Amino acid sequence: MQTLEDWLAGHHAELTAIRRDIHAHPELGLEETRTAALVARTMRAWGIEVTEGVGGTGVVGVIRGRRPGKRAVGLRADMDALALDEQTNLPHASRHPGKMHACGHDGHTTMLLGAAGYLAQNPDFAGTVNLIFQPAEEGRGGAVAMLADGLFERFPCDAIYGLHNSPGMPVGQFGTCTGPMLAAADSWKVTFRGVGGHGGSQPHLSTDITYAQAHFTLGLQGIVGRNVPPLDTCVISVGFIHSGSEQASNVVPSELVIGGTARTYSDEVRDMVERRIAELATATARAWGCQAEASYQRGPRALLNQPEQVAVAVAAAAASVGAAKVDSAIRPSTGGEDFAEMMQQRPGAFMRIGNGVAPDGSFSGLHTPHYDFNDAIIPDGVRYWVNVVAQELKTEPLEIAA
Questions:
Q1: Whole-model pTM?
Q2: Angle of CA points 369, 336, 87, to nearest 5°
Q3: What's the rounded Cα separation, in Å, for the pair 207 and 259?
Q4: What H or E segment, with its residue span, contains residue 297?
Q5: Tens digits of residue pLDDT in 63-98
Q6: CATH (one of 2.40.128.280, 3.90.380.10, 3.40.630.10, 3.90.1150.10) for 4-180+302-392
Q7: What single string gives the DSSP state of each residue in 369-385?
């Protein structure tokens, strides 16, 4: 049996090349045909059983341990890019304008591929590992699509695990927490309609929807301040306001559209926010003689880590980098993650891995045009995945070399 450290030493350069190739050829959600083909081709070359087209462009690899065991574990990575123009000027920068791996899914895919390669060559575990390469995490419903395509019926899992890089967290560190870790990520939109008019000579003949919008915008924070219990978490933000024309600044518009995002941790607060946004829109519109139509689009649910799987994840991370570099109680975030949809059906844990910090303390954040995944953390990610399998399927953890 080849040691993990020896395997990593011999494959880090290959994995880096794979990561940079994916980065240079980003694909948006449910369009990941090239990336999915690369993933499938790489796993087949390692002798792994591969199923393509799960939930559209998803790929699942299955590795069965050489020791008897009925337990199965799912390891998940996301593959899609963002609609963003890259500004890194790196040799492996995106070759496709308007598309960029600005969230590190290229690295997530590569780290899980690395673990797949090692486990395929060293299947010294009891049970089954399902390698889940998910499309469309960035708001296009990839997790739901895989679930609708029978993901867990076709590839049974007793527990599932996800991993995401974190710019600003030092290289070699991991972090997670029990319970809520990420928020439900919803979007809302309100259309105000009224009577337009001449804003210079006859404003009194219009029903000014801009007044209704202004009071509505202020009132949104009243939902957070007065309807949400003080110890619960809620964020409501305005993301866009569209109305009128710069070419006709003397016209009171007859229609205005405003929208944004809402983030919550509990179903009760989520339900209340949806109801109160509609009520507030209707009330402020009526106060100014207008009408309002509200819609609320639910995105991924809140991500809730389960205690048993958190214990496994923390132990795996500690075996990979040392217990002193693992934070088991990081502060939750109001970011969203559609892995939460899979965790509604199977118990699991989500882990963060440090993507690094510059010597001056700076870093390029996720979803920004200057971000790049740090190839130096690929070995730590592979170690983590292999040690999750070791913890779940009862093999000896592969401790980091001293």
A1: 0.93
A2: 5
A3: 21
A4: strand 291-297
A5: 999 998 999 999 999 999 999 999 999 999 999 999
A6: 3.40.630.10
A7: TT----GGGHHHHHHHH
